[in-house]
Amino acid sequence: MKAVLYICHGSRIKEGAKQAAAFIDATMPLVDAPIQEICYLELAKPSIEEGIASCVKKGATEIVAVPFLLLTAGHAKEDIPEELFKAAELYPDLTIRYGRPLGVHEHIIDVLIDRMKEASPIQTDASVLLVGRGSSDPETKQDFNQICRLFKEKTKLSDIHIGYLAACEPSFDDALNHLIASRPKQLFIVPYILFTGILTKAMERTVKKLETDAEVHLCRHLDYDPVIGEILAERVKEASLEEPICFPS
Q1: A Gene Ontology molecular-function term (predicted)?
Q2: What is the CATH number of domain 106-218?
């Protein structure tokens, strides 16, 4: 029997974990699998090991594990596979297939633009700070540069900047201060982040302390959007066609 295990990042803020669970619940009807479970890499329960155990208890003989993450970086490449290896040792007859994160997708760019429109009508000379979580993996910056390029193409805006909340340069604070010093008329701060967490709360505190005459809008994080749900469901379908993972003995 087939099961799908959605692996979320997890957050110290309970609201973030609840948002992830609600997102998965809304996406499950798009996926054809009798068993569907949610788990977290860290900071929330159930763990990946507990998620696999739940699937097996319900009769799963095959698990499609899909990382519910925006970009491919250390978590998707190393941390999650390591946890799958550990858990799979307990179930040697279990077939496990592993999918990929949401990745760079033009329809997610559309959601970012929607978040801007929610905040305010967009002026033609608006400045934008796209904010990523950040990672030590160099692929993160490559992906974010591609996101910035797609964003420029779709919005036709020219003053687009990038800042990261951790592990990458320029930092969010440095990029924001640089932008404020340029005295923009209208500034959108657009988080490329799925759910509420410690980092989004820190952004809110930083923006509240700004001293500027600019019209500043901190946009809502991505959160649940049917478009992203459809992409996640597509990642499940893709992963279902992948070769099973060969786990080390």
Answers
A1: metal ion binding
A2: 3.40.50.1400
